[in-house]
Amino acid sequence: MVKNFVEELRWRGMIQDMMPGTEEKLMEGPQAAYVGIDPTADSLHIGHLVSVMILKHFQNCGHKPYALVGGATGMIGDPSMKSAERNLLDEATLNHNVACLKAQLGRFLDFDSDAPNKAELVNNYDWMKDYTFINFIRDIGKHITVNYMMAKDSVKKRLSRDSSEGMSFTEFSYQLMQGYDFYWLWKNKGCILQFGGSDQWGNITTGNELIRRMDGGEAFALTCPLIRKADGTKFGKTEKGNIWLDAEKTSPYEFYQFWLNVADEDAESYIKIFTMLDRQTIEDLIARHRENPGARELQKVLAREITIMCHGQEEYDKAVAASQMLFGNSTSEALRSLDERTFLAVFSGVPSGSLSKSELPCNILDLLAVKTDLFPSKGEARKMVQGGGVSINKDKVTDIAYDVTEKDIIDGKYILAQKGKKNYYLIHIEA
């Protein structure tokens, strides 16, 4: 018995366009569908997550998901929504990227169980690598006219630009290759449906057309909206660039913080798109949030759900603990337990300076007012120390005779001074 997958996406706001008959076909019984992912990097970023969540819902509703990594098409580059030719990748790089992507997809999809609808990962390089150019244009190319291909928005937009930018035949052929992917998966894997972002509608429907013209078959298409932030800016971008799922590229702390800091309006849509929480739970959360937005409950639940899904409970717990460093009553032990990347991410925005290790030991007042500018004078530093308002590495210092020594250095590189509850100063220790 399958659940109504289309209805699940509909209330979550995850449908942009859908071919007529798609919902009815999916209610007939378990079906197979796929999403294509371009392996141009060795990690997914959160821009991929909408399509991945669609596959997750698809599997959750009793259907069989396929994740197609474009080892062949990744060598070409999709012109959709692009203004310039993409750099081409070599086979070794693509193979590395594909392996990394499968590991990440395994956090969202069941690839390993004995369930009949377990997910499968396929690579179009496997069926394209031995397909000669002559055979491809003879067998496939004859079924799709140039007029049909030229009518696609992705092509028209590129061709309307200055001729010096233009579009190569390589990229022009992309939609034909993606169309053949759909045909191959329809014929060999029983995939009757392709998902993608709304910018993929043209490429997807080329596949539908190829299936119809070559075999008289029927297939379907469903696209999701391209996610934008409430202010109109691009979703998933920060000053540092993409938010990656790879913990080495974007630490779990930074990942957690991204979701924790989304705007209220965005949180209401993101909680539906990026979590598996049921409708009633989400509606109750949104209602409570609107009554008391200052509590930021919606953002906290969103950040919890998506961080655990991507990085696991342990990394989520560490991210929460790290977040309390700036505003909570954290301990020196908790501070020292942070890995260096997270430590630097937590304190990336605080004032900083450097101190030579040879200058240690150093009296606390000299450290605060002479070696650094955390205090304008030793007199003010003395009052704050005696009043219990100064900490070194989260440990209160109340003795003005206290000497900061090498034992106070964290990870051999840092000392964290704190004035009051929220004023920090990060001292980099130089050898």
Kindly describe this structure.
The radius of gyration is 27 Å and the shape is elongated. The termini are far apart. The chain has helices at residues 5-12, 22-26, 49-60, 91-105, 125-128, 133-139, 146-150, 153-159, 169-172, 174-189, 201-215, 252-260, 264-273, 279-291, 297-311, 313-327, 332-337, 340-346, 364-371, 378-386; strands spanning 17-18, 32-37, 64-69, 120-123, 191-197, 220-224, 237-238, 241-242, 352-356, 362-363, 390-392, 395-396, 403-404, 414-419, 423-430. With 431 residues, the chain is of the alpha/beta class. α12 (252-260) packs antiparallel against α15. It contains 20 helices and 15 strands. The strands form 4 sheets. The chain has a 6-stranded mixed sheet with strand order 1-6-5-2-3-4, with helices on both faces. It has a 5-stranded mixed sheet with strand order 9-15-14-11-12. The longest helix is centred in the middle third of the chain and has 16 residues, at 174-189.
